[in-house]
Amino acid sequence: MVVCGDDGLAHRLAAELRIVYGEQVTLVVPPSGRRVRQPVVGRARAASAALLDMVNAAVGRGSGNGNGNGNGGAASAGGSEAAGAERVIQATELTEAVLAEAGVQRAAALALVYDDDETNIRAALAARRLNHRLRLVLRLYNRRLGQHIEDLLDQAATLALGDGAGGFDASTTVLSDADTAAPALAATALAGTSKVVQTEGLLLRAVERQPPAPGEVADPGLATLALLSATSNDPAGADGSEGSGEQGPQLLPDAATVRAATGRGAVVLEQVSYTGPAHGARRGGALPFGSLFSRRLRWSLFGLVACVIGLAVALKVVTGEHLLHATYVTLLDLFAINEPALKESTARQVLQLLSGLVGLLLLPVLLAAVLEGLGTFRSASALRKPPRGLGGHVVLLGLGKIGTRVLIRLRELHIPVVCVESDPEARGLATARRLRVPVVLGDVTQEGVLEAAKIHRAHALLAVTSADTTNLEAALYARSVRPDLRVVLRLYDDDFATAVYRTLRAAHPHALTRSRSVSHLAAPAFAGAMFGRQILGAIPVERRVLLFAAVDVGGHPRLEGRTVAEAFRPGWWRVLALDTGPVGDGADEDGEASVAGRPSRLVWDLPDGYVLKDGDRVVLAATRRGLAELLGRRSRQRAGA
């Protein structure tokens, strides 16, 4: 496996492949002066300490052996037999020569996870020329361009291989770390306990449930996915490090473990279904009627209409005319085009004077409505300011790649949002303008910026900038304003995230605190794609990750010919649903199920005695190691032997 990248996702992906899947990995990174600091990969720190030391040593040797053009040479790292043939190559630019030095011609898969789309596309085209049988995984933010590139590279491989593919999977998979992590971040900010996986029409919804009171029977839902930490059931919730409680979370427990667990919350699967495309987001070009006029102007118009109705009713009582005729006469008086009521009764004259007065009041209101409507249309392309009286909203800090995807997700869920961004050229500002979302431009570290975003009346703060200290400072300041505010932080370093979580939970025990790492959520999906598997999504369970995958039963000895109960391996994987829909264009060459472009019927209440057979497609939940054991190349090799 070859991994090329310039940020934390590349290091996490390399560690995932090496530690979880046991693969031989070559890592291509920029020179030491341009590389980002490697992230610490949670509990895998103990298992990967030797590997990280080896990588650091290799990088140090490579930096001294680089050639003059900055591409650097390969730095092989020694080690034990378990360490394998791990290599680190430093390269300023990912050229065809660097790819050849990394061994792309002999590799099974190549992951290009640079932060720049153009760099990944250039390298993918070069890699496809070097090895037509290579499985490619690209990280692209532009989803439309990614679909075209995926089709182009697959077509090139098909034409080059022809009928002589020989069982090789030379597929191309385009993924986005922003799309992978956005649903989890948005759901955490929204409710704190709702976990949603939604991809290409498939919707899986899980919910954190507090431990039942004495005498109550817990609702098991469709399946119990996890038991939370033993000490995580305080009001602050459980979302610290894996070792933050006396007993860490248990993923995919069996029925006996669930029954024996007392005083522990659980993550329960509530829904597995197929849905159409999201229609919750408002069309970008449509301007809602309510935004044309302010609330004060709308109330003024409503008051004038009420006055006209009252005057019409009074005129009917005085003159005895029909209500429609009385309304017509009142409107004539209102617009001063009726004859003076000189010979009428005193009551009629008084009503005519009152109608004239209401007409005088109507003129400035109509003028204000016209001016305000024109101003709204004129400023439709400008950024909105948070309206007065706004409350119960989510303050989204940062409109970069991740923040933009989270903003779209929140608006699809009809959640009011106020964005805070310091860069007037940020990529997410155009999206915020199109969705008519209020934006506060300013540095969040400066006083008054969060106040302008109405943080004192907000429901949650979602800090997703690329700077840990900025996110932390915003969270601490927001907590000083609102001690009970729900806070979700995007933090790069796991050790730092654990320390922040524990401190915030101790200082504010009755407030909800969450910490999320985008690369930690996205790495399992990229690793699965390198094996040609469809990872539907991932949900965080405290500081661990639970994966969902669509799998074809045929060819998997751990599934084929076994009952649902026999196929369930506690703590590793669990079959959730059987997909009985017809196979369409979404099935890949290995038969892995795809949910795009075809109707599907999910049977989630499978009896334990149902025997899985060749031709069945299932949706399963698995831990990272469980998925590696079930779908990895090592299990296939042992099955073949």
Give a topology summary.
Layout: E1 2-4, H1 8-20, E2 26-29, H2 44-65, E3 74-76, E4 87-90, H3 96-101, E5 109-112, H4 117-130, E6 135-139, H5 143-161, E7 172-175, H6 177-190, E8 194-199, E9 202-209, E10 223-227, E11 250-251, H7 255-260, E12 266-274, H8 295-319, H9 323-334, H10 346-378, E13 394-397, H11 401-412, E14 417-421, H12 428-434, E15 439-441, H13 449-452, E16 460-463, H14 468-481, E17 486-490, H15 494-507, E18 513-516, H16 518-530, E19 534-541, E20 544-552, H17 564-567, E21 573-579, E22 602-603, E23 617-622, H18 624-631, H19 633-640
Helix pairs in contact: 1-16, 4-5, 6-11, 6-16, 8-9, 8-10, 9-10, 11-12, 18-19
Overview of the structural elements:
By secondary structure, this protein is of the alpha/beta class. The strands form 4 sheets. Strands 3-4-2-1-5-6-7 form a 7-stranded mixed β-sheet, with helices on both faces. Strands 15-14-13-16-17-18 form a 6-stranded parallel β-sheet, with helices on both faces. Helix 1 packs across helix 16, helix 6 (177-190) crosses helix 16 and helix 18 (624-631) packs parallel to helix 19 (633-640). The longest helix is centred in the middle third of the chain and has 33 residues, at 346-378. The protein is elongated and about 105 Å long. The two termini are 22 Å apart.
Quote the average pLDDT: 76
Global morphology? elongated
Helix content: 25-40%
Strand content bin: 15-25%
Q: Could you tell me the number of beta strands?
A: 23
Q: Which structural class best describes the helix and strand composition?
A: alpha/beta
Query: Unreliable stretches, pLDDT < 50, 5 or more residues?
Result: 40-85, 232-246, 276-287, 583-599, 634-641
For the largest beta-sheet, the strand count, sense and barrel status come to: 7 strands, mixed
